[in-house]
Amino acid sequence: MVETTPGSVRLRPIALPVEHGGWGFLGAPIILGLWVAPSLAGFWLSLAALGVFLTRQPLKLALGDRQRGKRYPRTAWAERFVALYSISALLALLAAWLTTAHPFWLPLLLAAPLALVQFRYDLLKESRSLLAEVCGANALAALASALALCGGWQLIPALLLWLLLALKATAAIIYVRARIRLARNVPAARTPVYLAHAVALAAVVGLAATGLVPWLAAAAFGVLLVRAVLGLLPRSLKTPTPLVGMQELGFSLLTVAAIAAGFAMGW
Fold this sequence. Notes:
Elements: E1 3-4, H1 12-15, H2 21-36, H3 40-67, E2 70-71, H4 73-99, H5 105-123, H6 130-150, H7 155-183, H8 191-209, H9 215-231, H10 241-265
Parallel strand pairs: 1-2
Helix pairs in contact: 2-3, 2-6, 2-7, 2-10, 3-4, 3-6, 5-6, 6-7, 7-8, 7-9, 7-10, 8-9, 9-10
């Protein structure tokens, strides 16, 4: 039997994601994809991705309430936002399909299992787990490839954009998780952070050496490695968490700019 529990409703935590870092993981592929391959279809696809991104929070709440067999005042609002966001996403996706001259589905299909893994963890109330965060960020990174395809890029170069953002996002997640734990005096190993950044840098340097990605991208990953080393120093751990988030947003934009400029100038 479904129960109804009275109470006031705050719309913001229903309508908008509570994890602020998610906005950065969504913004990076949109900025990169539209920067290197602007197109009308890409614009509509970006709006569709925004709709899907926004749907996650109210859908998670609505399904969670249903699992508990309860119906709170927030449940109806969550369902309304799910309908609003999902319909908007479908309309934008239809517009992208109608206006594109190039197929863009493959990266989205490849990313779908990652998104499903993240949503599964959402339902289990384990959305802050490392696997859930990495899968979610890497699923969003596929959007850069889809946008590049909309703009006429070939498949392999477009998929390389996904790879670059996935490497950046994975290393950043491992770094931020460790930094926050250490700042709270919770034990956390630094070695995985350094290893993740070193592997990412080595992979990008290898791709740059073969001419598949620009050297500016490798330089940006070198900056990220230095950031990780300095960011885990004891004196850096005193930085307030909100400021750390702003710093990460800045490094993300710097990396996206370096990748885009590198492809544009052949560096």
